[in-house]
Amino acid sequence: MQTNLIATLVVGFAAAVQSFAAERGNFDWNAWGHLVVQDKLRCKPLDTLARETWLDLTLSARCSGPKTGASMDCTQAYVSMLMEWSGWDRSPDKQGTPSRVWRGAYFQLHEPDRWDDTALLPVDSSLLRELLGLKRGRTHVSPRELCTAKITVSATKEEEPFLNWAEELDRREGGERTELEQRALDLANSLRDYQSHRIGQRLFLVPAPDGPDKPWLSLAALISTEYSDANDPGGHLRKVQQLLAGCRKALLTNSSADFNSETAKLAVQLKQCRQLWSRDASSFAANLEVAFNRWHLFRMAGICLALAFAATVPSIRSRRPALVAVGTLLYSAGSIAALVGFLMRSMITGRLPVANSYEFVICFGLAAVLLGWLLEWSDRRRLVISAAAAIAAVAFLLPEVVPVSLDGRITTVAPILRSGFWLSLHVTATALSFAAFALSTAAGNIALGFFLVSARRPVGLSRLTALNERIMELGLLLLVVGLIAGCAWADNSWGRFWNWDPKEIWTLMAAAGYASLLYARRAGLVGHFGVAALSIACFALVSAAWYGVNFLLHCGLHDYGFGEGGAAGVGAVLVLQISYVAWVAFRSGGKLARQAGPPIPAIPAQRPGAAWPMAEPTSRNTTPLIAR
Amino acid sequence: MLLIRLLASTRVTIAALVLLAAAAGIGTVVEAAWGRQFAVWYVYGATWFLALLGLVGLNLAAGILIRFPWPVSAWSSVAMRAGMLMFVVGAAVTIVYGIEGQVVLRKGHDAENMSVKSLCRLTVVRPSQRGQRSTQITFAPGPVDWPEGRSLDFGVKDGFGVRVVKFLRHSRDRIEWVRDDANFIGPALQLTMTGNGNAPVGEEWLTSSVFGGEAVVGPTRFELLPIPVETMVAGFLKTPENPGASGSLSVHFQGRVETLHVEDCLGKKIAIGSSGAAVEIAEYLANARPTSGGRFKSLGDKPKNPMLELKVYLPDQKEPVRQIAFARLPLMSLDGVRGYDLPVKFVYHHAGVAHAPGARFLQSPDGKLYCRAVIDGALSDAREVTKGDRFAIGGGYEIAIRDYLPRARQEISCESSPSAERESYSAGAAALVELTLGGQPRRLWLKQDDEQFGYRQLVTPQGVVTVALECDRRPLGFRICLKSLDRKTEKRDATEDAGQPNKETVTGKASVTGEAGSSDAGIVSLVDITDAAHPNPAGYRIATGQPISYGRFRICQEGCEEVQGHASASVLKVATDPGLMIKYVGCIMLLAGLVGSTLMRRPRLRSRSVAVAQNISAADPPVVRRDVAPDMRIRRAA
Q1: Which of A382, A394, B175, B329 is the most exposed place for a label (fewest CB within 10 A)?
Q2: Nearest by CB to A516, which of B18, B24, B544?
Q3: B324 lies in the same domain as B422
Q4: CA distance linking residue B72 with residue A401, whole number of Å
Q5: Mutant choice from A484, A541, A592, A614 vs B, greatest count of B C-beta within 10 A
Q6: Is the pLDDT reported for residue B625 higher than 80?
């Protein structure tokens, strides 16, 4: 039985590999993916450029082939798009490329091909879909369709080409655009991006021979320039031209051997050009980035941690060694993947990756994983590790769900984000504190669950509350460290220590909230339920400090972290949390309120590694609710 | 003692913290909705917010005092409270005494003052027995337009009353011309132009100084020339016949008129009758263009802009005086440069000058208005015009004179700027200021830091009074000079320059093509700073995100002004923060207290939990956590 299963799996895997190889057609796209290019003031591998271009054009991370819709490697798609552009067949003197490629000029240089007929460009507004006359259910439009689309503008009631209207919108100065107009302009700009990429205007492949500080030469410029001994004394650029032409010919004639041979030569020639004309000829960072792109370490970490959560949750109530082992193994695998991913990203960027919303979320996930290890080491009851696994899994998988809001691409950072020590300390301490508070919230939710499942006062509650307190104390300490480091960073980079910036204020509010809760707990003003409920309420302040300021308020000096979207999701989570707390209070409140007792219970000592007991004998002296 | 106990209570602590947090949170929402200035004015810098900070400070201070003498076990608690107290005090000191200003420097220029944008300074300069006397009044107008009825009365300052009647944070100016025989600038003419089919084309005020004025409406050009001398009128009203290839010059002096043919008189000294004065046409320039040093040279021989260089010999002066005469701009002279009017006047006619379509209006010294329309490039015969007249100017256009003010002055008024225009450079703040001089109130609109409307002059019985509105300026105590300004951006899209290499704007010196994250995009100013103690310039580099400290000031690169995409001036933020050190010390104490509190509590908890496990089984002990509830302990002791 088992042998059959394994054989089936092996055969299936082999078939999948064969199918994948067939799709790739034995062309060495990998070598193209490793080519170093310049884009937006950054050197990166072509693999990254292809992925980012695809995401920009289609708003989807999944790359699919023309017409068939089959999954495809982004580099393959990008290079195929370039090579199949028929403008290359024209003589160099006739390859004049228009400055603003939107419509006619593009098709004057090139016959529409399979890429132009592929529905690549998303039309995400129903009003725009209606305006363009798209059939029901169609959400994408092909570049050719968009070029020929005619619309009836409501103001004039006359039919005119969509792109003419978009050009008028682009030229119009002053006055705010309507939602429809903005979406239309975005769509037209996507078309322009598509066209400029296809023409080769956005692929900067060779460093400028006249100085390392000069912008690199684009493929379009390289192809359309006639080089001679005067402007290319070493003949390097002519050789690149020849090799590019050779690659193209081999691809169009479907000769994979020639293509691979020409590609290898091209890679060598381009490296030689970089050695001659660029400051850094090393391909290490680019190769590392390709590996980083392909391994999807954070996705892998997210999946491992989600599975670890699933494995460890059942072992909280009753100890099951097999599940514990599997859970720990998965958690370890997830931790390693996340840590390696973080280190790789640090090496690629040359800085600690804490400069935008995406990087903060990743840092937060990693912080949750590390805190999970730390607290599990001291507690050993799988509760913390389960919660940490869940939180980190959400953090690592969230960018996969919302790739536009949490854009993971590596970009150059603002000068303000280059001041080393204080910024690194500020963000890492803040991420650790947020992770601690997320764990505290998880502990609070579990504690509330204790109230629900047990009619009597749960015995594990005291321990859980103490654990929650400990996590909150740690989080508060880290948050204060982060806040002070942030102040020092602001003093060193903005020239002011504290400026009542929204981010500063909401972080201070979160700190004040947790400090008040801990203080009230110490003073005996809140009991188990109060700690659980208020730790959840305080996390709302933490969420406001990050999500609220970055995604809702959009004001202050932390504008490099600003983003859009997610309000519905965050609102739904908030409503669910409030409902949960209210429900628990309603179910258990009356019963517990009648019980009188001391403000703070002690923590019963338990054997390390034991399961959490769910109930204990009723005591006359038990915990009050929020306030006495 | 009771008050201290009350203030030190846990409930007050929590209430104060929650109140402060809530107020600051509201401030962030206010900032998101109405902007930073609004939030600073109404929340963070408001008295009630300072009072709230004071309450938190009192609570913390009481919390420290009530524990006196401080036991060793309570050091972390005291340190935390003291740290927070110092932080709050530091924040309050910064709000009250901190100054934030701006210095805008062009390359090679220096500055000794900074502008404080949040404060307005009203300066009144008036004549006194000891020369000019200046009075300066500084006020904080706030971030929004003042509501109707709100005003700020400064009382009587140096013998005159000052009141700010209105203030607009973002204003749009409206200029009108009114008749004023006493304080006039020159004549003003309101024209309405209509095209084919009586369709309105434009309406314009045509005004003039002593050199004449012009207005352009579409393809047409209108001139208004106030003729200074009666004898010149005839020369303007009728073009001389046969002026010659180089034109003719009519010379006017003390009622005498001499007409000279340029070709015949070039280089000769010609006496003006028997007045003792003489004129020499030093040079004829067919197409004059200015060069350096206030000189002119001719670009070609075609008479596109004919001009004469003249030497004027006056009876009482040995050396001749330089003068110029343009055929295109008949009243243009060097009098303005020299600072006084030459008594000898010139009118230069040149047949080769082509006039743009439009009309030339001439105002005679007695206030009469004449018009010569330009039809087919030539001036028509003159006719006297008055308010309400209409006449054709060729090309199917007509003009109507809606109003004519022989002696007029500008009247400026301001209104609140529409929200769409508020970001524009011209939408600055404006104030309606009322000055009471000799019992007579005078109101005038002033635009803050505006070159044109930022200052006004009033003619009063006591003399000319100058009033100016600008943002407050504070001395830096040193001189800062901009040596160079570099900027890098990555704003431009490569597709804007399709077919060209990657033309992302690179103007800086540092590398931009390095590995990820190493590019140096931003603004870099290299400055020299000198002061009394350091007279030799010391060079500093101020870059985005890399401020410097000098004296008590922190100087940051805030941005740069751009002209046609190029950085033209460096904008530096200069700030003092007297509460900085207090806040730093507070932070260290807070952190130390927090670390102490977190670390010191753990062993005791653990040991107690073991005791509980041993003695009381799994049940919660009916004891108060004395080790962690100092407030309760204090309450019991009391």
Answers
A1: B175
A2: B18
A3: no
A4: 53
A5: A484
A6: no
